[in-house]
Write a structure and sequence with these properties.
Blueprint lengths: L3 H9 L5 E6 L5 E6 L2 E3 L2 E7 L3 H8 L2 E6 L7 E11 L2 H8 L21 E14 L7 E5 L1
Antiparallel strand pairs: 1-2, 1-5, 3-4, 4-7, 5-6, 6-7, 7-8
Length: 143
């Protein structure tokens, strides 16, 4: 039986980049590249609090992500619900130790002086591991 730990481990070995799909209040989909990082069972993404991602999640918290596939076609898809956090405690907690890149590149003021900066928390509800575009097998996880 596939666990969320299996999904997290497989995704971490793929690429730091994934594509996040959200849907706005107008019903239109939007896909954007993101660099998600895991903290326990939650995926976090740095975002602008006024960004399309944040506005879409406020209108519809259901999201999907697809990690960029490897040369042989291995990939991961994750579905879940998302919410934006921009409180100081969350920003300070996530700023060091969760992300594998320097957040100052996008928010030079750090957690205490980067207004308009927040974090998108994705709570996975199901996931799919694809080996060789699915031809090498699939593994499913659901909460």
């Amino acid at each position: 039986m596939t666990t969320l730990d299996d999904v997290r481990a497989f995704a971490t070995e793929l690429s730091p980049w994934a594509h996040l799909a959200t849907v706005g209040s107008d019903g239109e989909p939007d896909v954007t590249p993101v660099h998600p990082c895991w903290e326990g069972e939650v995926l976090w993404i740095l975002c602008g609090t006024g960004s399309v991602k944040a506005r879409n999640v406020a209108a519809n918290p259901r999201v999907a992500m697809h990690w960029q596939v490897t040369e042989v076609g291995d990939g991961v898809e994750v579905w879940g619900t998302a919410e934006v956090h921009d409180d100081a405690d969350t920003k300070r907690r996530l700023w060091e130790g969760v992300f594998d890149y320097d957040l100052h590149a996008f928010a030079p003021g750090g957690p205490d002086d980067s207004p308009g900066t927040g974090f998108l928390a994705i709570h996975p509800t199901r996931a799919l591991i694809l080996r060789r575009y699915g031809m090498g097998g699939t593994e499913r996880w659901a909460r």
